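A quick aside before the break. I want you to see a complete sequence-to-structure record at least once, exactly as it would be stored in a machine-readable document. Don't worry about memorizing anything.
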Amino acid sequence: MKIKPIRTEDDYHTALKAIAPYFDQEPEPDSIEADNFEMLLMVIEAYETKIHAIDAPDPVEAIKFRMEQAGLTPKDLRPMIGETNRVYEVLNYTRPLTLPMIRRLNASLGIPADALIGESKLCRNKSQKSTTAAKSKLIKNTKISNAGKQKVMKSTKRITSKASAR
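That is the input. The structure line, written in tokens, reads:
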């Protein structure tokens, strides 16, 4: 069997078909088949990591998902987040998670810390609003012609889109 890099979706599907029999009957360790199986797994994993990358979940969505899995209500989150109004503020994206909250949610609910540390919609919305506000202040306070203001708007849009892409 010849193992080659996966460059296209067709190559990917061919590799998946080639590896399927190994899952039904796993080869003996330290055999040629076992080496082929391991090499195919590595090639497929590299392609999936590169092409089918999964973004980190939104922290609040991760909490809501865990609540749904465990059949929890917002009142059940009080020991981890605080009073009920604070729980609702977090779940409605009006209050960010703090480090102690993240630690308690991780320990109590088993939500991975990586998922809780990620940027939530609240943070994304605030950064977009602050850049928009900064742009409008800059333009209002700058004494230039309308054509100059339009150039400033275009350049700040470009900078903003590059920053949000990161």
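Two observations worth writing down. The chain has three domains: 9-51, 59-118, 122-165. The first helix runs from residue 9 to 24. We'll return to this after the break.
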